[in-house]
Write a structure and sequence with these properties.
Blueprint: E1 2-3, H1 6-12, E2 17-23, E3 28-31, E4 41-50, E5 54-63, E6 80-85, E7 96-98, E8 103-106, E9 111-119, E10 126-135, E11 148-149, E12 152-153, E13 162-167, E14 170-179, E15 184-187, H2 189-192, E16 200-204, E17 217-226, E18 240-244, E19 272-277, E20 294-301, H3 303-309, E21 319-322, E22 328-329, E23 337-341, E24 347-355, E25 367-371, H4 376-381
Parallel strand pairs: 2-4
Antiparallel strand pairs: 1-7, 3-10, 4-9, 5-8, 5-10, 6-7, 6-9, 11-22, 12-20, 13-14, 13-16, 14-15, 15-18, 16-17, 17-18, 19-20, 20-21, 21-25, 23-24, 24-25
Amino acid sequence: IVLFSGLFVAAVLGQRCTQTLNVDLNPITFTAPKTPDLGTSAKCKWMLNALPGYKVQLNCTVETPLGIGLPKDRRGCFSETLYVSPTGRADLSNASEYCDIPISVRSIDSSMAVGLNGQLISIRGEYKCTAYAVFDPCDCGKKINPRIVGGTDASPYEFPAQVSIYNTANLLDPCEGVIISSKRILTSVLCVKDHVEHKHIVKTAYYTWVGIHKYVKHYEIESVICYYDTCDPAKGSDIAIATISTEFEFNPGVQMACLPFRQNVESFEGKKVEVAGWGLKNPNGTYLDVPNKQKTMLDVISNKNCNEMLTHSRVIPYHLCLWTNGTNTCMGDYGAGLFYTGANGRLYTIGIASTVPPGSNCINQPSINTRITSFLNWIKRNSPEGEYCPV
């Protein structure tokens, strides 16, 4: 592999056969155009684009009639050279040169640019490349655009890792969850405690009751694992992993959450978190008053201070307390992710909205939530197919 100047590439590669291809999980194959004239040069470029959350995998080989071997020059190269930009730069200014086969390259993000330059193989062989999308577990915690009391409307797809959960027996009592793998979400036990008796539906990219939803898709919950096998909220440890029947379709409005593996000893005291949900805008209202998903910013307080402020509950180490005057989570926000923005700009799910203060106390007392760092090993153990990237 040889790195080279982009100015050279721009001069060498023409526009004789430039294509833009959308890449998904199903492999696509592309080749340089054939010509009957031996020695005619081939100058082609392919722009490959996968959906956000995926990388492009490129595999190339040369096919020849009857499997005849191909001559190489003194460098051990064929007459054709492939140039690959792993970040999809159209001018190939950061591309690497590949002059031997087979070739296997993976993009750095969701785009790749491939250029071919040289004489077409004189024995009518041809470069054949296959490209497909591969899920990238490290592409997590994205915020596409820069029950909540005192909150404001969330922007479309602002929290793409969050989903809404509906019990088909009571569609007016919404819950929330957070995507942690291609088939699993984290949520509150309260949201799925009766999943055996009633079908539960997961909705992705759902932020308003009105209008057209570009990325909304419904998934049925297939199974649930609770920290306590009985899924009894009264036992504490309000955390559950729900598995859907088919894999999520990732796109700009549906992404995976980052979990705080690198912050596993952080208390987050004094930090701010964002939370979004369908909870009541005021503690005396109804869910019908909330046509749009709400969001708010809350402060993490110490468990000690939290205990001093509470009148009905007590907190223990696996709890995370939030308190900001005039705003809070409320009924209907159960299972929502508590999103902390790291120095790298990623959103980390450090908590799950759990117990809310009773009645009108939504805005008068702290909320008690599940602290994710206390359950990281349990999450990994009960979602073994997941790839968790410590970003």
